[in-house]
């Protein structure tokens, strides 16, 4: 089935790109995601408004082999993916409608895996994602887009594509995008139960 092949190919390409960061957490999550088998047909497909931003974000990615492979796999997989966006009423409406994420491998993922969440996260330009925290350890890889990031109460700072942002459990963090969409690889491990998630 084309959808199984597309999702598996995207998961492997995303894991290969994530691992290239050299971060220990990325290696662990990538190994788990690549080794997992099977697509849960119950996940189905779902489109979100922010999906329209994928092509532009992919086109703006710094070019190298692993990034190119990820971009090709992502665009090919879009119609087969379940994209969600948070409807948490504590979040600004512009954020709720201006982001989308897909969980490729994880407890709620296309590929069912315990103990992690790994996927793709997209945020539209000019969106503020207010400070929040959760019990899971988190690693982002910035595939495309320059945004301002905050951890704890430090000043916001621009993080460039090709870099990572690591959040230990419960660390408050926030971000605000500028003129470009932000395309991220996103990983959680540890206590991945989303019920710990809090807007601060
Ligand atoms: Fe987070």
Please explain how this structure is put together.
By secondary structure, this protein is an alpha+beta fold. It has one domain: Sandwich (Jelly Rolls). Helix content is 27%, strand content 30%. The protein has a six-stranded mixed beta sheet with strand order 2-1-3-10-5-8. It has a five-stranded antiparallel beta sheet with strand order 7-6-9-4-11, with no helix packed on it. A hairpin with a 5-residue loop joins strand 6 and strand 7. Helix 1 runs antiparallel to helix 2 and helix 1 (2-19) runs antiparallel to helix 4. The longest helix has 18 residues, at 2-19. It is globular and about 40 Å long. Bound molecules: fe (ii) ion. Residues 134, 138, 167, 173 line the site of fe (ii) ion (FE2).
Characterize the biggest β-sheet. Answer: 6 strands, mixed
**CATH homologous superfamily designation:** Jelly Rolls
Order of helices and strands: HHHHHEEEEEEEEEEE
Low-confidence stretches: none
The number of domains is 1
- Strand order in space, largest sheet: 2-1-3-10-5-8
The name of the CATH topology is Jelly Rolls
Contiguous helical run count: 5
Write out key terms for the chains shown.
200 residues; alpha+beta; Jelly Rolls; six-stranded mixed β-sheet; five-stranded antiparallel β-sheet; 5 helices; globular; binds fe (ii) ion
């Amino acid at each position: 089935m084309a959808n199984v092949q597309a999702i598996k190919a995207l998961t492997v390409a995303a894991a290969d790109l994530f691992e290239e960061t050299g971060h220990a957490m990325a290696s662990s999550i990538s190994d788990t995601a690549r080794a997992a088998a099977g697509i849960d047909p119950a996940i189905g497909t779902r489109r979100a408004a922010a999906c329209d931003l994928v092509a532009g974000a992919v086109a703006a990615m710094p070019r190298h082999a692993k990034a190119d492979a990820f971009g090709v796999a992502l665009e090919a997989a879009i119609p087969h993916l379940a994209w969600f966006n948070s409807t948490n009423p504590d979040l600004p409406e512009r954020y709720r409608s201006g982001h989308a994420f897909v969980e490729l491998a994880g407890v709620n993922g296309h590929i069912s895996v315990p103990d992690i969440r790994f996927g793709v996260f997209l945020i539209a330009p000019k969106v503020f994602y207010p400070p929040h925290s959760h019990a899971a350890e988190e690693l982002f890889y910035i595939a495309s887009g320059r945004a301002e990031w905050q951890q704890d109460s430090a000043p916001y700072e621009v993080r460039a594509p090709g870099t990572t942002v690591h959040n230990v459990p419960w660390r408050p963090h926030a971000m605000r995008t500028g003129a470009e969409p932000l395309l991220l690889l996103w990983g959680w491990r540890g206590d991945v139960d989303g019920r710990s998630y809090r807007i601060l």
